[in-house]
């Protein structure tokens, strides 16, 4: 072996060591996860470096490297797919071709991707919407919303809200042959955050006569107040990674990097807002088995100046877990998927507890060997099973 190849080998081993994370022992396809982890970690490190050099914005650079594949609206033998706008918001609509005597169910789907990396044209979202429309014989609306890093909260919330409100209008539902009594609101990850927030608000909106009958949230992120939950501690090294997660949360409000540091150190809640912590208190809201050896640390409170600068930080539309019990009691029947090896696991678990305490009917599917974004991973048995469980729940409850 020449000296050059020896150096290359050493470099290779170092890089592999740096990006390697041992997968959970129960994960179905460990190599897939090792590869995904290594890819994501490399992309994040590279993006950090490129940003440090001042060459490119971290978020824009990740967007390019991740290269989430987009597809045009192509109809197939069963489903007609069209791009249109609802209240100026671009949406993609999936309508079954088969004649139907009865009005159909309607699904309004809000995609994930950290408010940044995906759109209604992303292949994973297209596949899931097409599949749902076909198998459930439902009209599926896949809504866009304006993305980070260019647009910040509340733009994302408002885009989704406005497009949902448009869909819920009598004429629009009639046009697509949708039964106003059978509408479901579905979202995954950051889209689950938007779905949960939007459904809380639309219930009180007198302009919107029709309300969703159910909500389904797939591994949603539901609160920004506590970045030190057991699932944050345990899964910081699995996608979407703690570093990226906190950056995205911070970018949701501002491009100011000092906010990110404050959130990362969990010092972004000022003492005068400490009463809100009970809504996200994992020590009381998580089932015991998820707390295990974790200790609920006393907080270091943040400055009031921070809240003055970023008043949206503690907005209920940002953290749907901040809704009080009275609000939660009015929510529709709910289906929540959480994954064990997911940084957002405890957000979902706490919402399950709080909704159940408020008397809402909740079906909770906890995937013991699951990671965040499972629905977008193809070829896994567990993904297949999870999709079918979701589908049967919709058939029964919507
Ligand atoms: C269309 O529906 C038929 C009958 O359910 C099914 O066998 C076929 O795979 C579907 N086509 C697509 C593209 O999903
Ligand atoms: C969180 O819950 C624990 C256990 O129920 C309790 O002792 C603690 O005071 C709570 N803390 C906050 C901030 O609500
Ligand atoms: C938190 O503060 C309380 C009261 O100040 C104290 O009794 C408790 O030991 C502290 N807990 C931890 C984990 O530091």
From TrEMBL:
The chain crosses the membrane at residues 5-22. Keywords: Disulfide bond, Hydrolase, Membrane, Transmembrane, Transmembrane helix. Residues 107-261, 311-374 form the Alpha/beta hydrolase fold-3 domain. It holds the Pfam family Abhydrolase_3. InterPro entries: AB_hydrolase_3, AB_hydrolase_fold, Arylacetamide_deacetylase, GDXG_lipolytic_enzyme. The keyword Membrane applies. The active site is at residues 189, 342, 372. GO terms for molecular function: carboxylic ester hydrolase activity. GO terms for cellular component: membrane. Belongs to the 'GDXG' lipolytic enzyme family. PANTHER family: AB HYDROLASE SUPERFAMILY PROTEIN C4A8.06C, ALPHA_BETA HYDROLASE FOLD-3 DOMAIN-CONTAINING PROTEIN. This is Arylacetamide deacetylase-like. The lineage of its organism: Eukaryota, Metazoa, Chordata, Craniata, Vertebrata.
């Amino acid at each position: 072996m020449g000296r050059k190849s020896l150096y290359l080998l050493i470099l290779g081993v170092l890089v592999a060591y740096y990006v390697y994370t041992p997968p959970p022992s129960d994960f179905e396809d460990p190599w897939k996860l090792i590869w995904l982890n290594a890819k994501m970690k490399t992309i994040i490190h590279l993006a950090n470096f490129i940003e440090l050099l001042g060459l490119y914005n971290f978020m824009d650079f990740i967007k390019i490297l991740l290269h989430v594949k987009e597809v045009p609206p192509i109809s197939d033998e069963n489903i007609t797919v069209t791009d249109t706008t609802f209240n100026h918001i671009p949406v993609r609509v999936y309508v079954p071709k088969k004649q139907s005597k009865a009005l159909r169910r309607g699904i309004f789907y809000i995609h994930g991707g950290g408010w940044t990396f995906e759109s209604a044209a992303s292949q994973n979202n297209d596949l899931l919407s097409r599949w749902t429309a076909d198998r459930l014989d439902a009209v599926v609306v896949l809504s866009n919303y304006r993305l980070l890093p260019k647009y910040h909260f509340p733009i994302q919330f408002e885009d989704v809200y406005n497009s949902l409100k448009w869909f819920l209008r009598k004429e629009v539902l009639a046009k697509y042959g949708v039964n106003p009594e059978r509408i479901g609101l579905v979202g995954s990850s950051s889209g689950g955050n938007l779905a949960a927030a939007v459904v809380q608000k639309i219930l009180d909106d007198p302009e919107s006569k029709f309300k969703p009958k159910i909500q389904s949230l797939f591994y949603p992120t539901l609160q920004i107040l506590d970045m030190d939950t057991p699932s944050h501690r345990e899964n910081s090294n699995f996608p979407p990674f703690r570093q990226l997660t906190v950056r995205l949360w911070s970018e949701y409000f501002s491009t100011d990097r000092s906010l990110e540091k404050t959130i990362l150190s969990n010092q972004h809640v000022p003492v005068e807002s400490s009463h809100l912590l009970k809504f996200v208190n994992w020590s009381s809201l998580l089932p015991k088995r998820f707390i295990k050896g974790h200790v609920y640390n006393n907080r270091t409170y943040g400055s009031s100046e921070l809240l003055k600068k970023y008043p949206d930080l503690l907005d209920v539309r940002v953290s749907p877990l901040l809704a009080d019990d009275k609000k939660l009691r009015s929510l529709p029947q709910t289906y929540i998927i959480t994954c064990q090896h997911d940084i957002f696991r405890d957000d979902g678990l706490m919402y399950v507890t709080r909704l159940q305490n408020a008397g809402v009917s909740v079906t909770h599917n906890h995937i013991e060997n699951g990671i965040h974004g499972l629905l977008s991973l193809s070829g896994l048995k567990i993904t297949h099973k999870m999709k079918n469980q979701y589908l049967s729940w919709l058939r029964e409850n919507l």
